[in-house]
Amino acid sequence: MTTSFKPVSVAIGDLVSHPANVRSNSPETYDPENIAHLKASITVLGLLQPLMVQKLDGKYAVLAGGRRHAALKELVADRAAKGFTAKAKIDCRLVPEDCDVTTALSLAENITQAPMNAIDEFEAFARMMEVDDQTPETIAKTFGTTVAAVKGRLRYGLIHPDIRAAARAKTITLDTMKAFAEHPSQEVQREVFEALTKEDSYLQAYTVRQALKSRGVQVSDDIGAFVREDYEARGGAIAADLLEEHSVLEDASLVETILLEKLGATAEEARAKLGFAWADAMVRYDYATMADYGRVYPGPIEPDEAAQKRIDEITTELEQLQLEMEDEGLEDGAYNALYERVDALEEEARDLQEAYSAEDLARSGVIASWQGGQITLHVGLVRPEDTVKVEGARGSSVNPTGEEAPDAGEITYPASLAEDLKTERAMALGAAMALHPEATLDLTLFKLVSDVLASGMSVTQAIKVDARKEYRNHAKMDEIDETSLEQVAAAQDALDLSWLDDTRAPADQFAAFRALKPGEKAKLVAYATASTTQSCFTRDRQRDSLMHAFEIEIMPDIRAHWTPNAALFNRFKKAWLLKILGEDLGLAQEAVTLASSSKKEIVAFCDKLFAEPFATLTDAQRAAVAAWCPPMMQTAGVACDEAEPTAENPEPESEVAQAA
User: Fold this and answer.
1) What is the rounded CA–CA span in Å between residue 303 and residue 65?
2) Would you place residue 650 in the very low, low, confident or very high pLDDT band (cuts 50, 70, 90)?
3) CA distances from 608 to 460, 566, 595 (A)
4) CB-count exposure of residue 345 (10 Å: 0-12, 13-18, 19+)
5) Are 282 and 367 in contact, with CB atoms under 8 Å apart?
6) Scanning 56, 62, 87, 647, which has the fewest C-beta atoms within 10 Å of its C-beta?
């Protein structure tokens, strides 16, 4: 690139710094200790590569070669260095004064020299677009890279200046700075930055991303993609990002309004089709709130002649499909297609042989919610005020089996609560795995090798080593204890992610990954494996002896990663809370005293007790508080079969109908 510019000899004393030099914002680059080797090289060998200069105000400004310029000034100041004076001339290449790619020229040379400060590089790409009227396409062509790689650098270079300054001053990490690029609006970035720095002097990338989620919805998010067309039609503001998938729908209220309208329309369509009395919609299905709702189910009916004929046809087709599915040579795609057909036929057959009663239809309805990236229908729900409490009637307190409902004082763990506790235990187990990288690395590698080389069943189904993060659904994610979340966030911050640069080619990323120290690799593998842990209760030794033993090793006490809180106690009945206080924790007197209190007061007492055990507790009571958790969550607790949850409202697999 330099051969096209006119050679010129310039006195060292006539050289000055150029404002467009991309290292100009990193003065540490020119510190004596950082250029000592360059100074020594020039002393012995002379200047091997000419400086690129541009005439500015009668001086020659160094556009590319700032470190060599700094070394030359050091040599002039060093009286022991012979031949280097302010009047000594050196070879340069003169860049025309009207050249409009000054930043590009400086950046091109600096990329081939000593590694640049990452922020300098991000800002240089941004300046090329803003000042030199370059585009991502022309920049990519100039440096022989991809447009996506250029846009990735540009996004970081366009982060709010205050945040970049904080990263340059090392008051926040580079990864934390990059997290702010999740929202393209500099104003939003600044507001979140100021709010978080007031709350906590140390920012984490995870905290930043969570805070930015409340300031809009990305177009690539499942909800964003679902509502975007209607959102734009209504004039909703969009913060455009250089990478389209990171653009943000800024009006979160409008997004929710549109989503609820779409959910409501789907619920109404289902209501009209099935004949229910009412329809409703909610963004997230709140299992705690819905615990007071009843549910009705279709009962068997005698099919008419036409329905019976169709049932016979379905039976014949199902028999044929079962034979086809037994073909061992069947490819996965073909097998899945047959499986889906079987599901559809079985559902059709059920619909022909079951129906809701007129009484049930008159008091029940359907709610549509957003789950797993799609609309989910919850059908046959009965509002609390419409619930019939007649012995033996559907929706009454009598179980379908004919057995009486459990005593109010017996802790039976409703199905919705049990599912959420499974999620919380998986999160705690994930934290434990992230904090024990060597053991988790051994487990991961053992599973990979065993699954490939061994015959028979997989050594464990408890972890998914298939590079997919496990989705953990929870009705009250914003209210759970944050111990495990904080531990995982700390483990994430400790990871060496220098190799994970989205501007690099996969092969280059792999080379950088292989160069990591073994301990750093172990942390990465442990963190990734921890993210695949599935929702679960304590493992049954008979069903999975490997994970049973492993969990005991890395998580002998779940309370090191999880603490019961008010959100949990709110979901317990008053009688359960008194039972736990009196029997499990040895606080019999407190349980008697609280018996006349409201449930709200008892929940507050329990929350305070577990947050910081009272000084008046005996050693035994203190130990009981420190160890207590629902038994099926504790690794060393009772076996799964001994703590099987009982649903308050039994829900068969067919309860939920999903609509695209």
Assistant:
1) 88
2) very low
3) 39, 9, 17
4) middle
5) yes
6) 87
Q: Residue 197's closest CA among 247, 236, 240, 163?
A: 163
Instruction: Return the pLDDT at 609.
Output: 94
| Phi (first) and psi of residue 133, to 5 degrees | 60, 30
The predicted pLDDT at position 269 comes to 94
Nearest to 20 by CA among 127, 157, 159: 127
Segment (H or E) for 645: none
Return the percent helix, strand and coil in the chain, to nearest 5.
50, 10, 40
Sequence-ordered alpha helix ranges (H) in 46-92: 66-77
Helix axes 147-157, 136-143, angle to 10 degrees: 120
139 and 167 in contact (C-beta within 8 Å)? no
Strands 374-382 and 364-371 come out as antiparallel
- 592's CB contacts (< 8 A; 6+ apart) are 582
| Strand pairing category for 656-659 and 374-382 | antiparallel
pLDDT for the residue 390: 39
For tokens 């033996």, the residue is: 392
Cβ distance 286 to 250 under 8 Å? Answer: no
**What's the pLDDT at 626?**
92
**Token reading at 317:** 């087709």
Cα distance between residue 604 and residue 592, in whole Å = 16
Give the model's pLDDT for residue 209: 84
The pLDDT assigned to 82 comes to: 74
Residues pairing with 218 in the sheet: 248
Of 466, 447, 239, 281, which is closest to residue 366 (Cα–Cα)?
A: 281
* CA atoms 341, 344, 347, 353: torsion sign: negative
The C-alpha atoms of residue 396 and residue 387 are separated, in whole angstroms, by 7
Closest CA to 239 of 268, 259, 212: 212
Residue linked to tokens 């001339």: 89
281-316 per-position pLDDT tens digit: 998 877 777 778 888 888 888 888 998 999 999 989
User: N- to C-terminal Cα distance for the chain?
Assistant: 56
Q: How far is CA 56 from CA 18, 19, 128, in A?
A: 8, 10, 19
> Distance between CA atoms of 209 and 548, rounded to whole angstroms?
35
d(CA 335, CA 175): 44
With H, G, I as helix, E, B as strand and everything else as coil, classify residue 176.
Answer: helix
86 phi and psi angles, rounded to 5 deg = -65, -25
Is the model's pLDDT at 595 over the cut of 80?
yes
| Residue pair 150/128 in contact by the 8 Å Cβ criterion | no
The 3-state DSSP class for residue 596 equals coil
CA distance 441 to 72: 51
Complete DSSP assignment for 247-272: -EE--HHHHHHHHHHHHHHHHHHHHH
* CATH class of segment(s) 6-112: alpha beta
SS3 247: coil
Quick: pLDDT tens for 439-482: 887 777 666 555 544 444 555 777 666 544 566 667 677 777 88
Q: Which three-class secondary structure state does DSSP give residue 111? A: helix
CA distance 407 to 497: 54
Q: Across-strand partners of 374?
A: 371
The first and second tokens of residue 215, run together, are 């300031």
Q: How far apart are CA 564 and CA 574, in angstroms?
A: 16
